[in-house]
Amino acid sequence: MFDKKNVHKYSERYGLKEETAFLAQEEKVTLFLNNAEIISLLCSPANIDELALGFLTAEGFICTNNDYFEVDIREKGNTVFVYADQIKDVEKIKLRATLTSGCGQGTTFSEQEGADILSGASPNFSIQKVLSDIKLFQTESLIEGRTGGVHSAGLAIDGELVIRKDVGRHNAVDKIWGYCLLNNKKPYSAALYLTGRISSEIIYKALKMQIPFIISMSGATSRAMELAQDFGITLLGYVRGRNAVIYSHSERIKS
Amino acid sequence: MFDKKNVHKYSERYGLKEETAFLAQEEKVTLFLNNAEIISLLCSPANIDELALGFLTAEGFICTNNDYFEVDIREKGNTVFVYADQIKDVEKIKLRATLTSGCGQGTTFSEQEGADILSGASPNFSIQKVLSDIKLFQTESLIEGRTGGVHSAGLAIDGELVIRKDVGRHNAVDKIWGYCLLNNKKPYSAALYLTGRISSEIIYKALKMQIPFIISMSGATSRAMELAQDFGITLLGYVRGRNAVIYSHSERIKS
Q1: Where exactly are the structural domains of chain A?
Q2: Residue A231 binned pLDDT confidence (cut-offs 50, 70, 90)
Q3: Which of A49, A55, B156, B206 has a CA-to-CA distance to A173 between 20 and 30 Å?
Q4: Active site includes B103?
């Protein structure tokens, strides 16, 4: 996930000095769906099978609404070939691009407005559990601090905390989704942990995955907060140390 | 740029407590070029004329290579209509989408590989100037810390530091580009300051603007470092306090 490089470091005391640094890897990965080229993503080259499946599902190319769907993934260098039995009209989806704020200009091909209100169970979550999970998540995400170029997403599910990393904030979440699909995990009472800030498209993504809790070390935009309120998602931000901000549906959080 | 909202705050000492918080605004803005709808961006609703012009130029829809180009921008709510005399084939560009890592999945419609090597003058920059500029930039970008949802981009040009903010990392840079185009500024010896980390597409963007210096408070990916080396861009990261990491072309930095 990172390369060793020689850089110069400047400090007031020593001036310019050559040193070794660890930089986050960033590679171009091209996705094919049933032999049609869909897109090239710039991403961290790890778990790219999960990234491919998660991305194609998040963006509406693959339909996984039925309990039964077949998928076959083959990697060849930086190209991932996904074969799925339930796909949608690729050209139609590609033309319906909406750039999103992401940390920049993300594309989301999916019709976000068509998303359902979170209809699953309404589990409770204790603030102590959130604070202990975030501590573990923060420790495991330390690479971010080391390279300054990697975001983490974590899923607290079935007593585990599954963590995926990527230079792309969305990619990390798509990897989590791909993990769920490949391992037949249903995140309907799970919590999604994030290092990065929460903008609207992360809310839509969690909604499609039917995840009721989003917990971030950073803050949320006002649009993200409004959507979380409307869609029945409990949204927490600035969760660090022994503190947290609860933006929506605090009734699910027990202190 | 931000909304006041009622949230709950949790602290170990006081438990859950209702408080007012400032959240970054995020809105959908739709761009039209010569009456054709191009895209919808999620962004901070400020300087959207600059965002529209900067985005359309960065993505290759508008050609500004000639010294003379005419542009007319009209805003109507969250829709921006741009009229330009030098435009490229819109449908062709739209079909050539590459998602980029951004902080997520950015789209860049432009053919990055066609970019030139930085051919302008090779100005020098003193590390003291960088450190004093970053201090000013950091102070002006304080809103980021306040809301956790806003990135800043700054341009040190003609003795000034022009700062633009956005929930999107790329949007902030596109606003800077739009500012240059609308004010006939040539950033050929300017420095671009950023709060966010540097991935490859920021290097391509600076290259197209012919900016020789990129200076960030965060780190760079290894791909960004390699591109900066190849294209003749001086790239600095982790510039905070009295320290800096110089990733490429340190010969232009005088201590």
Answers
A1: 27-113, 125-254
A2: very high
A3: B206
A4: yes
